Amino acid sequence: MDAGYLCHTRGKTFVSEKSLKSHVKIHNLQSPYRCGGVNFHDKTHCQRHKCDKHEETKTNECPICSLKFGTSSELCTLHRRVHEKREFVCNDCSKELLVVRN
Questions:
Q1: Burial group, residue 87, by CB count within 10 angstroms (0-12, 13-18, 19+)
Q2: Looking at the 3D structure of the chain, how many domains does it have?
Q3: Are 40 and 31 contacting, i.e. CB atoms less than 8 angstroms apart?
């Protein structure tokens, strides 16, 4: 089995050569985007970091629990994992169960 693609500077392994090449740009000072002390080689990654890590950019608020998220997809994930009603069918007796997470 292929062990992946190794960054010899940090020892980090990547699943694709493209991911490794993208990561290596950080070490080659090809990182034009910054947030504090963190360098990003890609504008999208920098924006995602700002949305995920900095409170002032978290504008998507859950109307149920008031948690804030940087992206609407993160808010949707919260709803799906925490707030949605789910039906389960018991494998033993085939009884349907309705579970509500709060």
A1: exposed
A2: 2
A3: yes
